[in-house]
Amino acid sequence: MKITSLENSQDFCFVCDDSAFSGVQKISQKVAKDVERVFGFTPAASHTLADVKHDALIFGTIGNSALLDELEKAKRIDLSSVRGKREVYGFFVLEKPCSAFPAVQNAIVVAGSDKRGTIYGLFHLSELLGVSPLVDFADVVPEKKTAMEFGAAQNMVSKEPSVKYRGFFINDEWPAFGNWSIKRFGGPNALCYEHVFELLLRLKGNYLWPAMWSAVFSWDGPGLRNAELADEYGVVMGTSHHEPCCRAGEEHRKYRNTTQEYGAEWNFQHNREGITRFWRDGLRRNRPFENIYTIGMRGEADTAILGREATLKDNIDLLKDVLNTQYKLMKEEVNPNLEEIPRLLVMFSEVDKFYFGTKDTPGLKDTDLLDGVTIMMTDDNYGVLRALPDESMRTHKGGLGLYYHFDFHGGPHCYEWVNENYLPKAWEQLTTAYEWGIRDVWIVNVGDMGLLEFPLNYFMDMAYDYETYVSPAACNTARWTHDWLHKQFGAYFSEGDMEKMEQLVQDYTFITNRCKPEVMNEYIYDPTHYGEADELLAKAEEIVSNAQQLLSHCPAPIEGAFYELVYYSAAGAANVYRIWISAAKNRLYAAQNRVEANDWADKTAAYLDFDQQLTDAYHAVDGGRFYGFGL
Q1: What one-character-per-residue DSSP string does 228-291 give?
Q2: Of 294, 451, 501, 568, which one has the fewest beta carbons inside 10 Å?
Q3: Which residues of 581-606 are buried (b: 16+ CB within 10 A; e: fewer)?
Q4: Is position 11 within any domain?
Q5: Does residue 629 lie in a domain region?
Q6: CA 392 from chain center: how many Å?
Q7: 210 shares a domain with 151
């Protein structure tokens, strides 16, 4: 089967049953757009093979597709290795697929074991066409093609994902994500989340914690439209570690400042009735959708629930009361069989003490309250695991999860600006987590989303197909980076430039991992000892120079993506080191009454100007597509 740019829309038709899931049909429209991006025409769409003039993409979900039933009955496809699996798809290329419709010369068949399996299978076609998963979010324009052939070599059945639930957390979203969403979509509404869900699904993810600093996912759609859209696309929704029972953290505060229908305090001891109703109404509101229910209780705005005077036992007893109350509500509002309700307890910050307890004070771990609950372990907010599960945890009924950070807002210091994540470190920590049995839920904090697509893509690849993307013998992040950069930019840059780009990414992520730009000041790298400041300044100058050279070679169609995925993070971060080392030299030389201090003052000012110019250009590229992410 060959797809060519000479075809018109009737030569290649997308066909599914009219009973196909609406979310699957919407995704097929995005894949049709991908075909148009590559070949210049948009395929036709139909619910019958009678409309096909030559070639077809036939897609459906097992158990919900008469078309697949007929093909299997005629022994044209074998779905035995797909049926009954989780998020699996079969991809088959057939000649003369159906004798009842002789006009159909060739067909690609995508058969999903479930809704998400079908969606992943459709996006697999996009990837075969050379379309990046970042085509929509980061505007990675695919290479135009005149023809592409498909045959038996492309036949395959995907594996079940390595990690059952895989996704990201939009956090610390102001001002960047907030301004971006308002400028492009009017706020964090369904128009905005349409693109977030598309990114998640193209990365073969299935789980999301939505923005929550000031946003309320189930209000901002408007209304429930965000939640309805997530469910339509098969996206499993959750809430962050301190937002139980489908309630956003902001909801109680906003009610408290208006109607006070749920009481005036976020305090289960003083406002038990109000908070119980608050949780009940959240469960009732979101129960029609696919959720993982966060349980437990923390203080408002990511704080401890009880004051410093409270003992460990006080906190554990309170959580026991909270959990019993939440379970009662879930059985009444969601499902009488509690074991069938996906529940999650996140051991973030102080919560791990309440889970483990001490030799004198038994923790929640020593009760049966968490049977069937996924226990989510965490890193230290800076990408290093805080703990690993012992044997009893690895056999825990409910499984284990991981909450990881590529972005953090909090003490002792934040990192929320550009990508500052070093993949070898992520490889070390994530492989350790997986090998120790943490395989049920993985979620990563990506802050405002912007500029973190590179490490996010790596995280999602590992979570979806750990065996392929992780070498058992050695860290393979250099190979992954090579392949990833070529997927985004290989069609537009020379091989020499691609090698330079790989080194650029390696260099800037290495120095930002060593000392994040937000932590940098004039005292970190001493201008007199060991040549450390001069060494870093030379590397920063090299990074900026190489980034600018690559930008000068960048073709216009891919310029926006290059800014977003490589240039701004590399040049922006390196420039911060130039600013501070120049300031340090200025301070030192001024104290020595050297005229050279003025030269370093001028350099510092020039680097500060460059910082502003860099952000202005980034916010203007692609018609302002990324406006806000540079703040």
Answers
A1: HHHHHHTPEE---TT--TT--HHHHHHHHTTT-TT-S-S-TTT-HHHHHHHHHHHHHHHTTS-B
A2: 294
A3: bbbbbbbbbeeeeeeebeebbebbee
A4: yes
A5: no
A6: 30
A7: no
- 630 assigned to some structural domain: no
Q: Are 459 and 169 in contact (CB under 8 A)?
A: no
Candidates 374, 349, 442; CA nearest to 402 is 442
Domains held by the chain: number: 3
Instruction: Assess whether 55 and 35 both reside in one domain.
Output: yes
Name every residue whose Cβ is closer than 8 Å to that of residue 403 and which is 6 or more positions away in sequence: 169, 241, 346, 348, 376, 377, 378, 379, 443, 444, 445
The span from the CA of 147 to the CA of 429, in Å, is 42
Region of 238 please: left (phi>0), alpha (psi -120 to 50) or beta. beta
Q: What is the DSSP string of 550-598?
A: HHHH--GGGHHHHIIIIIHHHHHHHHHHHHHHHHHHHHHHHHTT-THHH
Radius of gyration of the chain (CA): 26
- Alpha carbon separation from 282 to 170, 278, 303, 334, 504 (Å, rounded): 20, 6, 21, 11, 47
**How does the average pLDDT of the chain come out, rounded?**
96
Quote the CA–CA distance of 359 and 129 in Å, as a whole number: 59
Q: What is the pLDDT of residues 188-225, one digit of tens each?
A: 999 999 999 999 999 999 999 999 999 999 999 999 99
DSSP type of residue 335: -
Range of the domain at 71: 2-157
Q: Which whole number is the average pLDDT over 289-301?
A: 94
Inter-CA distances, 624 with 129, 616, 620, Å: 28, 10, 4
pLDDT at 300: 82
Tell which of 157, 183, 207 closes a domain.
157
Burial class (CB in 10 A: 0-12, 13-18, 19+), 368: exposed
CA–CA distance, 545 with 567 (Å, rounded to integer): 11
Whether residue 201 is contained in a domain is answered as: yes
Q: Based on the fold, state whether residues 508 and 371 are members of the same structural domain.
A: no
* Per-residue pLDDT reduced to its tens digit, 14-29: 999 999 999 999 999 9
Asked which of 157, 184, 213 is the last residue of a domain, the reply is 157
> Which residues, 6+ apart, have CB-to-CB distance to 44 below 8 Å?
9, 10, 12, 13, 14, 51
β 156-157/165-169 pair status:
unpaired
Q: Are residues 511 and 461 in the same domain?
A: no
Q: What digits encode the pLDDT tens for the residues 1-16?
A: 888 776 666 799 999 9
Q: Which two tokens stand for residue 25?
A: 């049909």
Residues 512 and 588 in one domain: yes
pLDDT in tens, 229-275: 999 999 999 999 999 999 998 999 999 888 889 998 999 999 999 99
Q: Are residues 92 and 182 in the same domain?
A: no
Lookup: tokens for 303:
């704080």
State the amino acid at position 341 in one-letter form: I
C-beta atoms surrounding 538 within 10 Å: 12
